[in-house]
Each structure stands twice: as structure tokens, then as C-alpha cells.
């Protein structure tokens, strides 16, 4: 195989098996010798914030002697970003080698079950085999979608589980209500495990408390009263959390304080289990942590900010952050979303902040029709232009935008990654 063949295999929606259980994944892992059983995990689920929380935890563990694997999705620029050890992407050579080793077992499973595995299932297997053979001390494992039936959920009880947020996304697969989605996310709670979650109220809180009780798991929810913002700007934030008086993070947005607080509690749980995680490693790790494409400023004149907001909760947070950081400002929004999203409702959440919308499809097959969306926005009274491809957006930024213009890119991590790669190359 070459790397192009690897990418086609693990980044294409090839599966046709029903997502009713994890039997297909268990069979694949058994044929590979169950490498997941040789590893220890921090398992992370949530509608938004999984990636940044994983980045915070990985950075904290990077200040320890633990060899740390990191599995996340999606990627921004290269698919190798999804599998890392000690913050370094898997090499093309290793990616090819481990894919070739997994492929023969994939073929056996597909022949036995008469159904194709999904690409994410194959990618998960590759990552787990890689981490096991590289003898990682800890693996930070991010779910793809949901939790209960996610391919990562074939692991045994993790050292710690974390659930970052509950919002409406992937409803065709997870359910149409926050409660239904919460039950799927709670599926990563396992027997006698430690679970750290965002702050939840009402029925959502009851779902997690009930699941934790059923599994005999210890549940800790972040209390917003324990988090206090000291200062916030596009350069980063300073905040207090419980006994930590002056914590610094580079991540922008109030919601990142919840993600950082979850990471702190995960680190404290590991320390209580005997891992050598110190207060200093927590402080330094948080300050060093970086996760591209999340309220990230790429350029100064004009100001270009990219954000991976692609669902209702994410766009609401983006709107809130822009209003806080840039009071009384108007923005040029570059937006591209998948056509199966409720994109018009989401776009209108920032409508009153917009001086101009530039629409562009993030994917030729799955993305929305940019011209139709621009036309619909004009019909609603907004100034909007469509762009056929991201190179036209780059041309606008470099040649037409005013120096004092603030341009915000959102709607799809694939769009953010594409523009980011072109702007900072």
C-alpha cells in the first residue's frame, strides 16, 4: 500500500453494517490479538469540546514521563493528525505498515459477516494496534460519534472517562432530543470507573447519575461556581479553578474553561490512582496546550479567525465569544456546512453580527450548495456572496478585505483546515 491507498481506506464512508452492537468491532480486535487489552485509557465523549479537552490532557501528560497516545477526529490538514504519540503524528511509513497488518483481518471479518466495516472502525483498530506495539503508558481515546455504539467503546473500563458537553448533533444516529443523545454519550461509563463531566442539570443530570449508579462508577460534575475568569482576550485566558489560583490557557472562549477544568479533574484522578501527575505538570501543560482551528487567529490585518463550530451548540458558543471579545463589531463570515445540517438556522444565529457572508462548500459531495445558500441569505436581507472554491476566499482575504476587517471562518473543520493550510503555508 501507499499513503494515498491508506487514506482512501480510512477516510471514506465504506461501511454497510448496522450499528446495533459492537460485535463487528470485537471480532476485528480479536483477530488482531486484542491490543486494546494491553493499554490503559482516558476515554472522552461529548458533542463539542472533545478535541480541546484531549489536547489539554495530552499536554499535561506531556509534562510527565508517561508515553501518551492520542486518538482524535476529524483532522484539519493531514489524516496522520488523528493518531499521535507524545504529540507527534504517526509517520506515513508507520501508518502504511499498521494499515497493511489490519487489512487482512478486515477482509476476514467482512467475509465472515457479509458486511463491510466502516472506515472509522478500521482507523480505530489501526490506532489501537499502533499504540499497543509502541507500548504507550496511557492512551487518550476520543469517540467518533456518540459513545455506546462508537467503535472506541470496545475498551474495558478506562482509568478515567470524560464527557465534555451534550448538544444536538448527528441526530439521525444518536436521537432527536438532548436526553436521547445523553444516553448514547453515557454509554462510555463502565463498571467501577471514574467519570468527569461538564455541568448538567435536570433530566440530563439524572441520566448520568443513574448510569453511574448502575455501573458503580464515581461521577464528578464540574461546578461553574468553581471556575472564575480573571482575564480573557484573543491572546488567551487566565482563570481560577478550586485551589488553582492563576491558570493560563491559550484557548479562546469561556467554554474552554470548562474543558480545561475537566482536564484538571482527569489529571487529579490519575494522580489519586498513583500516576506521577503534579500540580506543576497541570499548570504547565494547560499553558502549553494548543488545538488548531478553535477560535484560532491566523492573521492580523485583516484579522482572520477560524473556528470549528459546525452544530447548533458550537455556533451559539461562537456567537457568544465574538460578542464578548469584539463588542459592537461587525464581521465577515466565511461559512461552509454539510448539506445534512440545519445550516440556515445556525447561520442566522450570527446574522445580526454580519456585514457580509461568503459561502463556500466544504466538500463537493456532501457540502451545501454555496450559491443557493447565498441566494437564500440575500432573500432574508443579508449581504452574501458565494465562492466556488476556497482559493476564491483566499483571494478575497489577501486582495479585497480591508485591513481592519474581521473575518470569521466556521461551519466545518474541513473548511477550516483547508483555509488554514493555504493561509499559513
Q: How does this model look, in words?
A:
The protein is of the alpha/beta class. It has 2 domains: 3-288, UDP-N-acetylmuramoyl-L-alanine:D-glutamate ligase (3-Layer(aba) Sandwich); 296-423, Alpha-Beta Complex (Protein-Tyrosine Phosphatase, Chain A). It is 40% helix and 18% strand. It is built from 15 helices and 17 strands. It has helices spanning 3-10, 23-31, 50-61, 92-113, 119-133, 171-174, 178-185, 202-215, 255-272, 279-288, 312-325, 343-347, 370-379, 390-400, 413-423, and strands at 41-45, 68-71, 83-85, 88-89, 138-142, 160-163, 194-197, 218-221, 227-233, 236-241, 244-249, 296-299, 303-306, 331-335, 354-359, 384-386, 406-410. The strands form 3 sheets. Strands 4-3-2-5-1-6-7-8 form an 8-stranded mixed beta sheet, with helices on both faces. Strand 7 (194-197), helix 8 (202-215) and strand 8 form a beta-alpha-beta unit. Helix 14 (390-400) crosses helix 15. The longest helix is centred in the N-terminal third of the chain and has 22 residues, at 92-113. It is globular. It starts with a helix and ends with a helix. The mean pLDDT is 93. Residues 293-412 form the Mur ligase C-terminal domain. Its EC number is 6.3.2.17. Residues 44-266 form the Mur ligase central domain. One of its GO terms (molecular function) is ligase activity. Keywords: ATP-binding, Ligase, Magnesium, Metal-binding, Nucleotide-binding.
Summary?
With 425 residues, the chain is an alpha/beta fold. It contains 15 helices and 17 strands.
**Estimated radius of gyration:** 21 Å
How many helical stretches? 15
Percent strand equals 15-25%
- Number of folding domains? 2
Query: Can you tell me the CATH architecture of the largest domain?
Result: 3-Layer(aba) Sandwich
Reported by name, the CATH topology of the largest domain is UDP-N-acetylmuramoyl-L-alanine:D-glutamate ligase
- Major beta-sheet overview: 8 strands, mixed
Q: Using DSSP, what is the number of strands?
A: 17
Q: What's the mean pLDDT score?
A: 93
What is the 3D shape?
globular
CATH homologous superfamily designation of the largest domain: Mur-like, catalytic domain
The CATH class designation of the largest domain is Alpha Beta
Alpha-carbon distance between the two ends: 28 Å
* Strand ordering within the main sheet: 4-3-2-5-1-6-7-8
Amino acid at each position: 500500500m501507499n499513503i494515498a491507498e491508506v487514506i482512501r481506506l480510512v477516510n471514506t464512508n465504506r461501511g454497510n453494517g448496522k450499528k446495533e452492537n459492537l460485535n463487528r468491532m470485537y471480532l476485528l480486535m480479536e483477530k488482531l490479538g486484542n491490543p486494546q487489552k494491553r493499554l490503559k485509557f482516558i476515554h472522552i465523549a461529548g458533542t463539542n469540546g472533545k478535541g480541546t479537552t484531549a489536547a489539554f490532557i495530552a499536554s499535561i501528560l506531556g509534562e510527565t514521563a508517561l508515553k501518551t497516545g492520542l486518538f482524535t477526529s476529524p483532522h484539519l490538514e493531514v489524516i496522520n493528525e488523528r493518531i499521535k504519540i507524545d504529540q507527534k503524528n504517526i509517520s506515513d511509513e508507520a501508518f502504511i505498515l499498521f494499515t497493511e497488518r489490519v487489512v487482512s483481518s478486515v477482509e476476514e471479518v467482512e467475509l465472515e459477516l457479509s458486511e463491510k466495516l466502516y472506515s472509522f472502525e478500521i482507523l480505530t483498530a489501526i490506532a489501537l494496534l499502533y499504540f499497543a506495539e509502541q507500548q504507550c503508558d496511557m492512551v487518550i481515546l476520543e469517540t467518533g460519534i456518540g459513545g455506546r455504539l462508537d467503535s472506541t467503546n470496545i475498551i474495558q473500563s478506562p482509568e478515567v472517562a470524560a464527557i465534555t458537553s451534550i448538544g444536538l448533533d448527528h441526530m439521525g444516529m444518536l436521537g432527536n432530543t438532548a436526553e436521547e443523545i445523553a444516553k448514547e454519550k453515557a454509554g462510555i461509563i463502565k463498571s467501577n470507573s471514574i467519570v468527569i463531566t461538564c455541568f448538567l442539570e435536570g433530566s440530563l443530570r439524572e441520566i448520568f447519575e443513574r448510569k453511574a449508579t448502575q455501573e458503580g462508577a464515581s461521577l464528578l460534575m464540574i461546578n461553574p461556581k468553581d471556575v472564575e475568569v480573571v482575564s480573557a482576550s484573543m491572546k488567551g485566558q487566565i482563570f481560577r479553578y478550586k485551589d488553582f489560583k492563576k491558570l493560563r490557557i491559550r484557548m479562546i472562549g469561556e467554554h474552554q474553561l470548562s474543558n480545561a477544568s475537566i482536564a484538571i479533574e482527569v489529571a487529579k484522578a490519575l494522580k489519586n490512582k498513583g500516576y506521577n501527575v503534579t500540580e506543576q505538570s497541570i499548570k504547565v501543560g494547560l499553558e502549553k496546550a494548543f488545538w488548531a482551528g478553535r477560535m484560532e487567529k491566523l492573521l492580523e490585518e485583516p484579522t482572520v479567525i477560524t473556528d470549528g463550530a459546525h452544530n447548533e451548540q458550537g455556533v451559539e458558543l461562537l456567537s457568544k465569544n465574538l460578542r464578548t471579545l469584539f463588542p459592537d463589531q461587525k464581521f465577515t463570515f466565511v461559512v461552509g456546512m454539510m448539506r445534512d445540517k440545519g445550516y440556515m438556522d445556525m447561520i442566522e444565529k450570527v446574522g445580526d453580527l454580519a456585514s457580509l457572508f461568503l459561502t463556500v462548500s466544504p466538500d463537493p459531495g456532501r457540502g451545501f450548495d454555496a450559491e443557493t445558500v447565498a441566494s437564500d441569505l440575500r432573500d432574508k436581507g443579508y449581504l452574501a456572496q458565494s465562492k466556488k472554491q476556497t482559493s476564491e476566499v483566499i483571494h478575497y482575504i489577501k486582495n479585497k478585505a480591508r485591513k481592519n476587517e474581521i473575518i470569521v471562518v466556521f461551519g466545518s473543520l474541513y473548511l477550516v483546515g483547508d483555509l488554514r493550510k493555504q493561509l499559513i503555508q
